[in-house]
Amino acid sequence: MRKNIHILGAGPAGLALALRLLKRASLDCDISLIEKEPFTGGLCGSFSRSGIRFDYGSHRLHACSDKGILDEIKSYLGDDLLLNKRNGRIYLSGRFVRFPLKPADLLFHLPPSFIAGIIRDTLLKPFRSKKGGVHSYGDALLYSLGKTMCERFYFPYAEKLWGLTPFKISADQAKRRVAGASIGKIMRKICSKNDRKSVFYYPKNGFGQICGSFEKHANELGGRIHVSSDVHSILHSEGHIQSIRFRSLDGKESSVEQNTDFLCSTIPVTSLVRLFQPSLPQSVLDAADKIRFRSLALVYLVLRTDQFTPFDTHYFPEKNLIFSRISEPLNFSQCSDRKGLTGLCVEVPCSLGDSVCHASEGELVSMVLDDMKKAGLSVRCEIEDSFIRILKDAYPLYELDTMRNFKVIDNHLSTFSNLLNFGRQGLLIHDNIHHAIEMANSAGDCITDKCSLDALRWRSFRRRFEEFVVED
Ligand SMILES: Cc1cc2nc3c(=O)[nH]c(=O)nc-3n(C[C@H](O)[C@H](O)[C@H](O)COP(=O)(O)OP(=O)(O)OC[C@H]3O[C@@H](n4cnc5c(N)ncnc54)[C@H](O)[C@@H]3O)c2cc1C
């Protein structure tokens, strides 16, 4: 009898795994994806409104992605995969500076006190000590970068993005989010002539076209994709997952139960552990209760003008403005059905229950417009449309004890012989799409033709995932 592999979540990780497995001729299995939203793509999806393709926040395919992964995406998208020059700006100390950073631009546009501070911190580095220990993101960055970069850039940005003071964020975060964790490394990065950092790939029809192409190929190869489907139970016995139960959220199908030979999950690990029947031990559920995600309110504006600015993305690290980024999709790809209109996507980090989440749509749009004015980006044209989307689990939060709690869950999940948990929300990894695809390909390679797990191999891949560093 043919075996069944189920994959929870049809974001890039789930879709890429489905494709990897479907392409393996020696694997005689049915592959089913279960996705709770009515569309696939997860955070990497796109949608149309007023004739404009919008993404869920600023997304680009970094040119420094693994070559094999880039080649695969190129083979699906062909000429639709555009190669663009990066053209962003960062708002620092009340001025705009080009991003990616350029040495001359920094010298001419940063306040002299900022530059003097960086020089002083660099000279004083040999005298900084780790005597009190490096317990947090704040400690790690203060030691490696000094006060100026921390207090004027990294700390306010961390507080805005993750809603935590830098001293309550795990030191691990410094490794994963700050690629050049010393002034020397940052300067080398800024001065480097690495062309791959100054360009990026972007699909003609929005970032979601990447996942759209994965979905299309998975369908052609016989994969079954159930959208608008909510998994409500994972039935297990003696360390083996036996079946899953899911129901369709659009009311078209009632609850169905399917036997499964192997279950892969890319959904938030905190949701996954609550689906097991019988329930997992209380210690595992308690650990999950302590893990939090940061949300993101996306405020979309459709403006009656051809172009708002020529820049693809503006970055706002400082805390006095509520948004962290503003992107203009038509500067990524000129794909629009309607002339004389452009769109903006404004990213406002928030936590469920805070004032941003409680604000009405009109109030949030007003807050955004007020702060855009403060940053010198007043909207002077007519606003044709505005709307909001909330990404509930946008960023896994790395609090001081997050990894300890995750370990409790991870150790327990690894006792199941036919379960693999991975992806951004599964392993709590701050990643890029190429990392999500790499995790998926690795997961696929650890599922044997007999539908069992090569656990040793998976453990070695897991160590590699710990080295991922996010590209911004
Ligand atoms: C604002 C923002 C900007 C980003 N910009 C970039 C960028 O420029 N370049 C880049 O490479 N990466 C970027 N990323 C990262 C990128 O989005 C992730 O690497 C990628 O989406 C991770 O893929 P995933 O499949 O692991 O998770 P997700 O994309 O989160 O997919 C998970 C899927 O699981 C589904 N799901 C959740 N719960 C359930 C459930 N109970 N049952 C069934 N399905 C469920 C979700 O609906 C979703 O479809 C950005 C991320 C954010 C938040």
TrEMBL record:
It comes from Candidatus Auribacter fodinae. SUPFAM superfamilies: FAD/NAD(P)-binding domain. Residues 13-375 form the Amine oxidase domain. It comes from the Bacteria. GO terms for molecular function: flavin adenine dinucleotide binding; oxidoreductase activity; UDP-galactopyranose mutase activity. GO terms for cellular component: cytosol. This is Amine oxidase domain-containing protein. It holds the Pfam family Amino_oxidase.
